[in-house]
Amino acid sequence: MPASPPKVLHAAPFRRLEPLLAPALERLAAGDPLRERRVLIISNRLRDHLQERLAREGAFAAVSFLTLRDLAREIAEADLRAEGLRPLPRMGGEALAARALREAEKRLGPLGRAAGAEGYGSALFATLTDLAEGGISP
User: Fold this and answer.
1) How far apart are CA 100 and CA 120, in angstroms?
2) H or E segment at 64?
């Protein structure tokens, strides 16, 4: 069984952590610039910011940023596959919501006109996701 990669947890206010990221990633590389390193972050916006900062500080290969949702999806994927299931592709939920809206357009009455509008499926999927995360069934 291969050795598990090192796991390091840093907890402090962001303004103190941000300047420590590049040096921490260099230490985790242990002399191998292509060694995989993963950073758990709270948002995609923070990912973009940190990627820009790393780019300004030098080349960092094999560094990936995961949100909690990305990590949960990755962990759950093995269990889903073991049960013969697959997770939805990245935009799968939005595509299914848009299709359901198109198919229900006539039954939606006046709201049906919006069913084909750009972004309506994504908005519906985001709303359904928010409701599910809040424990509310539609």
Assistant:
1) 11
2) strand 63-67
Output the pLDDT for position 2: 60
Predicted structure pTM score: 0.60
Find the angle CA(19)-CA(23)-CA(27) to the nearest 5 degrees.
155
| Spacing of C-alpha 10 from chain mean position | 21
* Dihedral pair phi/psi, residue 70, rounded to 5°: -60, -45
What lies within 8 Å, CB to CB, of 116 at 6+ separation is 101, 102, 105
- Gap between the Cα atoms of 126 and 102, Å rounded: 17
Angle, vertex CA 65, rays to CA 41 and CA 38, nearest 5: 100
69-109 residue pLDDT tens: 888 888 888 888 899 988 778 788 888 888 888 888 888 88
| Alpha helix (H) residue ranges in 90-137 | 92-103, 120-133
Rounded mean pLDDT of 4-13?
79
